[in-house]
Amino acid sequence: MTPRWPERLWIVRHGESAGNVARDFAYQQGLPRIDLTGRDVDVPLSPLGEQQARALGHWFSQGKEEGRPNVVLASPYLRAMETARLFREAGGCPEGTRIHLDERLREKEFGILDGLTGLGIRAEHPQQAELRASLGKFYHRPPGGESWCDVIFRLRALMDTVGLHHGGCRVMIVAHQVVVLCLRYVIEGLTEQEILAIDREGDVANCSITEYRWEAGEEGTDGGMALVRYNVTAPMEAEHTPVTREPDPIVGHRG
């Protein structure tokens, strides 16, 4: 009988992107808008992000994870695709492993708030700033954008697909910060309060590892995916590669 869930599941945030760098600069300078143009989907990795992705691949190639993934899923955003490709080139998974792109792993959509810093949101859309403060990030949906709940809806469908097609496999997912957090919510059955508390503890580091393993239940009970570790940056530290934790920016025009 085909197993219901992957044997192992690694969830990885993409390497540092040019958008992360631009966002950090905008906040340091107190600017209302992040200095990037074009579509968010096309924002590439920074040179440091490329180095982080290779360090992750080297870590897996050296057997530090007790096995390499034989299934790789990635967001279709360029920074996630580049992370998965460089990971594969560095030996993180077998050379011929296909990188499956899945739009359900894309970054959270920010709608009319796209490209704005917190200062810019308060200046240009004060009503949305008030709504977000009232509803919280879990339920607030900016016009044309998504709430965390909307992201969770698509990730529930994604996990059904993973269970259906990749049961018993060693699966890696390469995506974005909010996706990593929302997958924790889905897999672990967390509450709004629990996932937001995890979010407040600190940002998900670029190319960090969140790992789950399948654990069989006692006779007559279902098993499930058990969290082994969260937000681990050992691959970068092993190669003395700087660790970055900037949140994904809201940049450019989407389409």
Automatic annotation (TrEMBL):
InterPro entries: His_Pase_superF_clade-1, His_PPase_superfam, PG/BPGM_mutase_AS, Phosphogly_mut1
Top-rank taxon: Bacteria
KW Isomerase (keyword) present: yes
Annotated keywords: Gluconeogenesis, Glycolysis, Isomerase
Signal peptide: none
EC number: 5.4.2.11
TM region(s), chain numbering: none
Pfam families: His_Phos_1
Family: Belongs to the phosphoglycerate mutase family. BPG-dependent PGAM subfamily.
Name of the protein described by the UniProt record: phosphoglycerate mutase (2,3-diphosphoglycerate-dependent)
Organism: Paracoccus niistensis
